[in-house]
Each structure stands twice: as C-alpha cells, then as structure tokens.
Amino acid sequence: GQGSEFLKKLQTPDGAIADSTNKLFSIWETVLASQALIIADSNKANPTIIKAIEYLKNNENGEGLVCHNQKCKEGFCTETSAIYLELLGNIYGAETIKDRAITLAN
User: Fold this and answer.
1) What proportion of the chain, given as a percentage, has pLDDT over 90?
2) Higher pLDDT, 49 or 44
3) What is the pTM of this model?
4) Chain center to CA of 78
5) How large is the average pLDDT for residues 48-53?
6) Cα 71 from Cα 26, distance rounded (Å)
7) How many helices (H) and strands (E) does the chain have?
8) Which residue, 13, 20, 72, 83, shows the most beta carbons closer than 10 Å to its own?
9) pLDDT in tens, 85-94
C-alpha cells in the first residue's frame, strides 16, 4: 500500500528508515517502521525489512539490545528493545531471541 511504499522510499543506504533531517532517533523510527512493514507485508524476506534489521543489528549494544537514539548506544531502552526483539523473533524465530529477552526481563 501507500504507507509501505512511503516507508520504503525513506530508507537510507545504511538501512535506517527514519527522518533524514534528524538522525538522533533513527533507531526508534527504524524499529517502528520495520514493525509496520512486517504487519503490512507478510513477506519477512522483504529486502527493505532485511536491510532495516541489519541496520538495527549494527546498533546493538553488547547484550544485543538497542537504545532509542544514537546517543545511548551502550545502554538500552526497554520499549525499543522489546519491539526490536519481537521483530527478530517474528523473522528468525523465538529461540533466536531467548537469551536477550531474559536479559531484558531482568
């Protein structure tokens, strides 16, 4: 649909799907945009989604979690990480996120 096409056009070469004028919250925006694309397009191998997930993986902290913005990369945000793990679980299976989910829950 139109929304999916809009999000796909926003994707930057590094994989982020975010406001190009302010990259501060590109991680949070990419998490939300990826979630919307997965809901709209059941094809989990969609190249836009895969590229966005790779961008998010590149922004993980040492525990495999993410923060909502670029300034707190070493920390993590509970809400952003929870949605990120849900995305990974939907694409790669729940077993792939089990340890990170336990870390997030503690």
Assistant:
1) 73
2) 49
3) 0.91
4) 13
5) 95
6) 11
7) 5, 0
8) 83
9) 999 999 999 9
Long-range contacts of range 96-103, CB-CB < 8 Å, 24 or more positions apart?
Answer: 99/64, 100/63, 100/64, 100/65, 103/63, 103/64, 103/65
Residues 6+ apart with CB under 8 A from 97: 85, 88, 89
- d(CA 90, CA 97) in angstroms, rounded, equals 10
Strand, helix or coil for residue 8 = helix
Contact 58, 18 (CB under 8 A): no
| Burial class of residue 42, CB neighbours in 10 A (0-12, 13-18, 19+) | exposed
Look up tokens 């995305």; give the residue.
87
- Average pLDDT over the chain, rounded to an integer: 92
